[in-house]
């Protein structure tokens, strides 16, 4: 014999009320489980948590609450209160919320109107019978009717789950074929859902309409092409617009600048030169990783570019690296020291150096903050005669990004939000999508979402924001990436940090600041590995 109580579930009807809603509002005080079933018209229910619209054929199930107001005119509905009995349960719970992740929100179920009406009318007709046999029949019929609702709820929950998976696959498809003519109707058919269901789930997953989502992807791709001197007509066609004038209008609506204004902003300060021969003696005040990736060791570089923490993993890439001359810690390298090295090319990040350096040797200026990592590599590759190698690395990198992104969409969906933080000299910074320390990898390459407040405040112009630790909850998403120099206790021992649900769940990745600070190929590769390990492994 088993020493356990058999598992069973029973509903006990407490009250049943049929209401013809001609009055403005009706108040219910509910101390037990309750439900409202609408058989004609529509009505609005309102409790202290939210408002909910109901139409004919819908049943809404509530957990016990203090009071609720129902508004409706020319509407017929039933109000039922009931209890739930489960012999082996420690406490009474509402089985309808077994399928509903939001336990404090009403559970809405769509029921075929004939089944709903017929069942309610039969229960209502005999609800007050004093006949014992009829009372037993009433009880059995109530179990059957509640089972019908549970069955329909489970069916709809499974359908919704399948719809989410289907729409997530369509989102991945959009990222791969954004340049094609994409309509909501076509995408809904591909997902195997109705147009209404598709748009509802899509909005829920992305917080955007299909049109907005496709437009944003196209505009982001267009941004990359605009800095490569492509014509507007060709860019428009590449990203999916046949009319360059329509493309220009859409671009300005999204970015706030015309394509030409955006391209000029990005190119301002980038000064390149055409060299008659491939340079052999290069001096650089930045971009060591890019040069080494292309098989080039500069003859002179700033101290920070030779820092052991940064350069140690790259020692094997060049046997000439130990011959590179340390030109000092200052961003402005002494011209006299550069002259002694007799360079045939100087690469700098500072436009203020251009005239001085240009009088010594041909000089390329690539501003660090406002030039994307892949564009930096292309410009350097072009300057040193290694553009083919640069494009080959970029192609491998983009292929890897797409693979990781597809895996993330498949496993995590598209609603995951991540927060990128920097702790520097005991100051905490929130980093936007155009800042350093892995922001490019997180937000631009892998296209992960940032929390709403961070997304609103941090743009291409405002790269980061210093915040007090007490304000951190306003900026935290589902996962935190933290780059920190030295001791982190000022943050990790703070109660505001400890109380974050993201921290309590262990969804925090501590990043190597020396690898996340830079955007060279080696750093980008390591950042992808770190992010993939944090979110997928």
From TrEMBL:
Entry keyword set: Signal, Transcription, Transcription regulation, Transport
Fe/B12 periplasmic-binding domain boundaries: 281-537
GO biological process annotation, one example: iron coordination entity transport
One GO CC term, this protein: outer membrane-bounded periplasmic space
A molecular-function term among this protein's GO annotations: sequence-specific DNA binding
One Pfam family per UniProt: HTH_18
Protein family per UniProt: Belongs to the bacterial solute-binding protein 8 family.
Primary localization: other
Domain HTH araC/xylS-type intervals: 168-265
Record protein name field: AraC family transcriptional regulator
Cross-referenced InterPro entries: ABC_transptr_periplasmic_BD, Bact_iron-sidero_bind, Homeodomain-like_sf, HTH_AraC
Source organism superkingdom: Bacteria
